[in-house]
Write a structure and sequence with these properties.
Blueprint (H helix, E strand, L loop, with lengths): L40 E6 L9 H11 L4 E3 L9 H10 L1 E8 L1 H4 L2 H12 L3 E6 L5 H8 L5 H13 L2 E2 L8 H12 L3 H19 L10 H12 L11 H70 L5 H14 L3 H12 L3 E5 L6 E6 L5 E6 L3 E6 L5 E6 L5 E6 L5 E6 L3 E6 L5 E6 L5 E6 L5 E6 L3 E6 L5 E6 L5 E6 L5 E6 L4 E5 L5 E5 L6 E6 L5 E6 L3 E6 L5 E6 L5 E6 L5 E6 L3 E6 L5 E6 L5 E6 L5 E6 L4 E5 L8 E3 L5 E6 L5 E6 L3 E6 L5 E6 L5 E6 L5 E6 L3 E6 L5 E6 L5 E6 L5 E6 L4 E5 L5 E5 L6 E6 L5 E6 L3 E6 L5 E6 L5 E6 L5 E6 L3 E6 L5 E6 L5 E6 L5 E6 L3 E6 L5 E6 L5 E6 L5 E6 L3 E6 L2 H9 L8 H7 L16
Parallel strand pairs: 1-2, 1-3, 3-4, 4-5
Antiparallel strand pairs: 6-33, 7-8, 8-9, 9-10, 11-12, 12-13, 13-14, 15-16, 16-17, 17-18, 19-20, 20-21, 21-22, 23-24, 24-25, 25-26, 27-28, 28-29, 29-30, 31-32, 32-33, 34-61, 35-36, 36-37, 37-38, 39-40, 40-41, 41-42, 43-44, 44-45, 45-46, 47-48, 48-49, 49-50, 51-52, 52-53, 53-54, 55-56, 56-57, 57-58, ...
Helix pairs in contact: 4-6, 8-10, 9-10, 10-11, 10-12, 11-12, 11-13
Length: 971
């Protein structure tokens, strides 16, 4: 049935409705708005449906919502006996009551009841007059109605409300919307507090004033402040119900507090006893856990060290163990193991995706691609820059033994166990030609330097030359007594080298097939051979664990490269002929000096035999292929790790950061200072000019200059950008041990073994003052952080504090039992730290001159000490080859940095405190993470696999990922 329209109802529209509830007629049926969540609204709209004939009220609702207000208006007709209760609830949950005033709404029973409920609940009323009002006619409609008294009671307070009427003469819808919006959003916090407290009070009232409906604590205090802050005028005004509710809540809270006070007092002693017992238990458990963690960390560290000490040890596995050990518990042993392992990780990419072991891997002539041959009958082409798989060549019916580019990079020749050789288009991957003729598996195939011919080797004991265009077989080389493992052209294309498992290598005339040289000193089969870039030498790899360098003209072995057990599987020259890389059955590859035969570097990381090795065309990278089904890209010897600054020819005595942290300056006994890029680890500038050892180097505060101190009795100022010398500070009568800028950059202080420190004008190089009250040589001089003091450390076992303005001695610090190498303050200038030859560092209270902490731990003299930028940490260096990090507040040792192979002379924090740079007499400076957890994150960037299931069982490692790239674990 269709519900009849009630002309007085404050809504519009028609819907289908169920049968009418008992006691209601179609004319009087209250309708409720259904489906609305019980949330707060900014505005409740009360109106007569007769006034919305042109949808003015509906438009106004939409406009207010578009302006950001939450609006509730009853615009749906649904039959329900609960309708009026819903209307009341929405009025109570609305901050403002918007009444569209007209004769129709004033003559509406439901509108009048809504107005009354709004007044009863103290709602702020916004009266919007829609049309002129005839008061007598309106009041006449109330006569003899059941709601007459409600309407009359509403009239007087309604007349006192300021009606919005400024739109009546000239209707302006937008202005009306803005006026209502402004009124509705005025004093929003006050209105929201009124609504919130009203709803809480009603909940309390409806629950029969149940204590469970009370509020307490800060909500109660906030409600009391709201009531107390009412000025007697602001609407909506507090209601009696709200006041009664707040009063009841305060009474209940006071009673509860009083009741609980006694109970609290009674249990406090029991709780204190229980807490004390729990603390003792927790402390014991923590010590047990710490001990167990330390033991576990040491076990894993010991496993890592065992791998590192094994000549064939896998450094990647050692690094994974070191990471795990540090995650369990920090120990210096785990830290040192991970540092050593990280230094040996030279892989920078791993090519995954092979279904079998790799037999051959080479670069394209331009170095942009890598091609790998595989036992799974497929050839894969990879992008060198990204490591992404570019293309897969399929067609052979057996495993691929080799794949090589043509000299122009346009073609690829492959050799297979299916006894054939094939040529492919390197750009499209299309198959071009097949060569048939070998009666055994083909072990290798390669182009001639001019690309006209292809030479292949086979298990049929022969090698053959083919016309690369026609596929015609031109020559067959027969002379080996066993399988021929490889064949290669000389760089000029005149000769061909073949190697065999009969232990010999043969050199043939490429044009005639004439045998001209035989190499036969290997004690086992030869797996590969290659000419040097100049064609004068060849290198062979053999199962007898050696690789040999032969002189082509004489046939003599001029160098024997002896590798580990497992046999040499392959060998290749670098493009410049200076180096040789070999692969072996020990899962490693080695880089050798081709002249001296010395091992330059061991490449560890593969988990199976390294079957093939090759240099990139530029000599900067090496690719290796392994039985572990991966190919790896490695840094060749021309590059250095970013964190090891190598280049000085002698001891590095000092290293410190530039103010922006982008550069490091080092000072060395090689008479130079160097500036390094911290991002690349490369040397940017070499500061040459000193005639003796350079003891120190330091940046100016603005980073534009560097000052150095030398044994040649001078300090020098340099342009940090160009490396040009600016001033020579002359005057000291002995070696200058240190030089440093004042914090404002105006002055430089130098220290010398002539028993003085000197202050210089940094802009002119002029001498200003001599600090001469030292009893022995001065090892170091520096300003404090504010520039108000100068600190000096001398060989008379003392340190001194001077007034930087008057240059007068303020106090002398006594306590060290040996040379004091330096004294430096932290940022607040409250404390200073000194380093001494007595194997200790000391933290001093600058104001009192008293020792706060003595830092014990180094096994030899402490050469330097420095605070972190925030003053929380201290780093010390020592002749025991370590640097150590300490908690500046407690004096406890936090971390030991092991990796240098000699005295560590100095250390400095980066400006952001994340890194530390150290200088050593091993000729290097090193950059370290100040937090070992950051070092773990760095080490994770250097590994390309996680533990295998077998390794997890062997070392007792759980299934969680070791590094982020292996799962969701955060280091």
């Amino acid at each position: 049935m269709t519900l009849p329209q009630n002309p007085d109802a404050p809504f519009r529209g028609e819907v289908l409705a169920p049968a009418l509830p008992i006691g209601y007629s179609a004319d009087t049926l209250p309708i409720r708005h259904t489906g609305e969540p019980m949330s707060h609204y900014d505005v409740f709209i009360s109106y007569s449906r007769k006034d919305d004939a042109d949808q003015f009220v509906t438009r106004m609702k939409a406009a207010l919502e578009a302006a950001g207000l939450r609006v509730w208006m009853d615009d749906k007709i649904v039959s329900s006996a609960e309708w009026w209760a819903q209307i009341e609830t929405h009025i109570e949950r609305s901050h403002n009551f918007l009444l569209f005033i007209s004769e129709h709404s004033l003559a509406s029973e439901w509108c009048q009841k809504e107005i009354a409920h709004a007044f009863d609940n103290g709602k702020r009323l916004i009266a919007f007059q829609l049309s002129a009002i005839d008061e007598k006619r309106v009041k006449g409609t109330w006569m003899d109605t059941g709601w007459e008294q409600i309407a009359r009671a509403n009239w007087e307070p309604l007349r006192k409300v300021q009606w919005i009427t400024d739109h009546l003469d000239v209707p302006d819808f937008a202005a009306a919307v803005e006026r209502i919006r402004a009124d509705a959003q005025s004093d929003p916090k006050y209105v929201e507090a009124h609504t919130r407290l009203l709803l809480q009070a009603q909940t309390w009232q409806n629950s029969g004033e149940s204590p469970g409906a009370h509020i307490s604590g800060e909500p109660l205090a906030e409600a009391e402040r709201w009531l107390a802050g009412w000025d007697g005028k602001t609407l909506p005004a507090p209601t009696d119900l709200q006041r009664a509710f707040v009063s009841a809540c305060r009474t209940a809270q006071v009673a509860a507090e009083q009741a609980s006070a006694a109970e609290e007092a009674r249990v406090q002693e029991l709780e204190a006893r229980a807490q004390h017992a729990q603390h003792e238990l927790t402390a014991v458990q923590a010590k047990i856990a710490e001990g167990e963690g330390r033991i576990r960390s040491l076990e894993l560290a010991a496993d890592a060290v065992e791998i590192l000490n094994d000549p064939a040890g896998n450094y990647e596995l050692a690094a994974l163990l070191g990471i795990r050990a540090l995650r369990v518990r920090y120990t210096p042993h785990a830290d040192a193991a991970l540092i050593k392992a990280s230094d040996g990780l030279h892989t920078f990419a791993v090519l995954y995706g092979h279904d079998g072991y790799i037999t051959n891997a080479v670069f394209s002539p331009d170095g942009h691609f890598i091609i790998t041959a595989n036992s799974d009958s497929a050839v894969r082409i990879w992008e060198t820059a990204t490591g992404k798989l570019n293309r897969v060549l399929r067609g052979h019916e057996g495993g691929i033994s080799s794949a090589t580019y043509s000299p122009d990079g346009q073609f690829i020749v492959t050799a297979s166990w299916d006894k054939t050789v094939r040529i492919w288009n390197a750009l499209t991957g299309d198959f071009i030609r097949i060569f048939r003729g070998h009666s055994g598996q083909v072990t290798h195939a390669a182009y001639s330097p001019d690309g006209r011919f292809i030479v292949s080797s086979s298990l049929d004991h022969t090698a053959q030359i083919w016309n690369s265009v026609t596929g015609e077989r031109i020559l067959t080389f027969s002379g080996h007594q066993h399988d021929v493992s490889s064949a290669a052209y000389s760089p000029d294309g005149q000769l061909i080298l073949t190697t065999s498992f009969d232990g010999t290598a043969l050199v043939w005339k490429a044009e005639t097939g004439q045998l001209i040289q035989k190499f036969h000193k290997h004690e086992s089969g030869i797996s590969s051979g290659m000419f040097s870039p100049d064609g004068r030498f060849i290198v062979t790899a053999s199962a007898d664990n050696t690789s040999r360098i032969w002189q082509v003209s004489t046939g003599e072995a001029i160098q024997v490269l002896r590798g580990p057990e497992g046999g040499m599987s392959s060998a290749a020259y670098s493009p410049d002929g200076r180096f040789i890389v070999t692969g072996s059955g020990s899962h490693t590859a080695r880089i050798w000096d081709a002249i001296t035969g010395d091992v330059i570097r061991v490449l560890r990381g593969h988990m199976g035999r390294v079957n093939c090795v090759a240099y990139s065309p530029d000599g900067r990278s090496i690719v290796t292929g392994s039985r572990d089904t991966t190919a790896r890209l490695w840094k060749a010897i021309a590059t250095h790790e970013v964190r090891v600054l190598s280049g000085h020819g002698h001891i590095v005595r000092c290293a410190t950061y530039s103010p922006d942290g982008y550069f490091v300056v080092t000072a060395s006994d090689d008479h130079t200072a160097r500036i390094w890029d911290t991002l690349t680890g490369g040397s940017v500038l070499i500061l040459r000019g000193h005639e003796e050892k350079v003891h120190s180097a330091a940046y100016s505060p603005d980073g534009y200059f560097v000052v150095t101190a030398s044994d040649d009795h001078t300090a020098r100022i340099w342009n940090a950008t160009t490396g040009e010398p600016i001033y020579i500070l002359q005057g000291h009568q002995h070696g200058v041990t240190s030089a440093a800028y004042s914090p404002d950059g105006r002055f430089i202080v130098t220290a010398s073994l002539d028993h003085t420190a000197r202050i210089w004008n940094a802009s002119t190089g002029e001498l200003i003052q001599i600090l001469a009250r030292h009893q022995d040589g001065v090892n170091n001089a520096t300003y404090n952080q504010s520039g108000s003091f100068i600190f000096t450390a001398d060989r008379n076992r003392t340190a001194h504090i001077w007034d930087a303005t008057t240059n007068k001695l303020i106090c002398t610090l006594h306590g060290h039992a040996g040379f004091v190498y330096n004294l430096i303050s932290e940022t607040t200038d409250r404390f200073a730290v000194s380093a001494s030859s007595d194997r200790t560092a000391r933290i001093w209270d600058i104001n009192t001159g008293e020792t706060v902490h003595v830092l014990h731990g180094h096994q030899s003299e402490v050469r330097s000490a420095a605070f972190s930028p925030n003053g929380n940490l201290i780093v010390t260096t020592s002749s025991d080859s370590t640097a150590r990090i300490w908690d500046a507040t407690t004096g406890e040792e936090i971390r030991v940095l092991r990796g240098h192979h000699g005295v560590v002379y100095s250390a400095a924090f980066s400006p952001d405190g994340r890194f530390i740079v150290t200088a050593s007499d091993d000729g290097t400076a090193r950059i370290w993470d100040a937090d070992y957890r950051d070092f773990i994150a760095y080490a994770c960037t250097r590994v390309f696999r996680d533990f295998t299931p077998e390794e997890r069982r062997r070392y007792g490692i759980d299934d969680t990922p070791t590094c982020p790239q292996f799962g969701n674990l955060t280091p």
